[in-house]
Design brief:
Distance between the termini: 11 Å
Strand order of the largest sheet: 4-3-5-6-11-7-8-9-10
Largest sheet: 9 strands, mixed
Length: 236
Amino acid sequence: MPDVNASTLGDHIKEIIDRNGWSIRQSALKIGVSPAYLSKLINKKADSNPKPQTLSKLAKGLNVPESELMSIAGYMPVPQNVRAHPTSDGASITANVGWKTSDEPLDVYGEITAGLPTFADEHIIGQTIIPDDLIDKYGRDNLFALQVDGDSMSKVIAPGFIAVFAKDCEVENGDICAVLVDGENATLKRFKETSKAVILEPESFNPIYKPLIFPKNIDQDFKILGKYVFATSLLQ
């Protein structure tokens, strides 16, 4: 994973803010993050290492080169979309520069906000390592992880374990999914579709859980967030 030195990164961001004479609140507004998160990052109390997307957002709001924060955070530049252009004396090479971590950790979220999930850094509770073949199959940016809270799927995955999901993946009958119900409650259930309804079935040793049934003749107040593809107990 990126060897982010929170002290170095936090001190560097504070130096930029102080140099511009901004307050934490002013800086957070410019960046588009909460003052609480920015304060935690500066004061070395952030719960996790910022992702490339967050560092890009920070760089834009602080008006500094993205590469500056990426390098301090331990991310490596990776050539992407490499192109060769014939010239009179050979060829020239151009490429876009992307960023990736030195290992393949995945952020683990402890909650999902109401409505469409934002997967904001404030909700990250840790990271977990996943197999390379899972990344190769689905793409790292297409994967997300949640810590299981509750025992409605205890026959499949125990409470407290980490469930990994693929976002842009076709869901078929029998697949286990992360589902947002009523725009606010995330749940883990087995997906089943009939001609008349979508059924979200629990698989628990606890008999209190019942299927959630969404008839097709009424508005379906649920959203499939991702297909369950992996489980682990490793939370870093």
